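Entry for the shared binder. Reason: the reviewer on the internal report wants the predicted structure included alongside the sequence.
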Amino acid sequence: MKKFQTLPPKVGNNGGTAFVRINGKRIYLGKFGSPEAAQNYARCIAEWAISSVGPEQSSPQIGTITVKSLAVAFLDYIQQNIPSQYHTSRSAITGLLQLYSDIAVDSFSPKCLVAVQHQFTQYVDQNGKRRCRGYCNTLVRHVRAIFRWGVSQELVSPLTADALKYVPPLREGRTEAPETEPRTDVPDEIVDATLPHLLPTVATMVQVQRLATMRPNEVCRMKVGDIDMSRKDGIWLYNLPKHKGTWRGHKKIVPLGKPEQTLILPYLEGKKPGQAVFSPKTAMLEKKIKDAKRRRTKVPPSQILLAEERAANPKRGLQEHYSSRSYARSIERAIVAANKKLPKDQQIPHWTPYQLRHAGITELIAEHDGDRDIARAVAGQKSINITQGYNHADLRIAIEQAKKRGNLPESPHEEQTEK
């Protein structure tokens, strides 16, 4: 990494106009103390940090669309058409607009993208953590996507968008952005040790996800009406209306064998097709029943009245289904609570729902002597060589694997919670 021997230039005030002096050149930023001056200063510092020559003072072109207008329009497009990428695109746009919101889109050069790339590596969240190198590269790809989309809308010159592809990604060992540990499998022994400490709803979600090798979001958003139980061979088909590859035209169907069916069936009773199979409302009811059983004293009338008032006028209503974050958070909290009571030699390591899917895929590859195609089909992954759209061969392979699954293991919960 490049080391600088001088401190960043400070802002001066010249008759109410802010400026900085870099390499002997005075660069005016706008009205002193204004948001415009603050943004231009941040841009100058970012460009100064990645250049030995210093920033070039650029001004918006008259009669052209600004980067801010383009980014806002792109974000609306993403939200409507590719919602799975919305949050990442928003993070990329936030960093982009911190430096280059008011310049014309065709003034955005590769050097500007390098400055934005550097800005991504400097971000520190509220917990003091920095963005990893891989995520910074992902954000840069999203910035490029903004300008490519602008070309399709005739808002950006093709030359401008094409030039951005020559900015190289951050390389391992050549950037101050930290590396992340590779995602590993979570052993079944650790999962089994965690299940008794989870609420029955969350424990069932964990078991279903592990058996069917689903993504966390897929088990969270499972609805009653998405499950087809009409097959004569007894296999249920979970049709995902929206998933990671929907925007590419891919379809995904998850076969559910007898173990998954046994787990899911109690959660289907009395529910309409549009309702979620696994609901936080059911989990909250399970928690109340669990807390009531552990209580040794009688509940005071005042506490009962307060609980009724809160139920009638909740400050924050529960969601209809879990999100990937709330699902992972439920598991994390259960592990933390369990480790407070367990001895040191029985502590449960932290793990996430994504590791369940990783473990399932690894197990399938091992069981079939390294044949990755079976694991790819069961997990619903699409390679670049597969024709876009639904592949019936994948479904046949996945159904055969569902038929081979054994009986359901004993539940860690002795009593089923009444729903």
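Summary line for the report: The longest strand covers residues 25-31.
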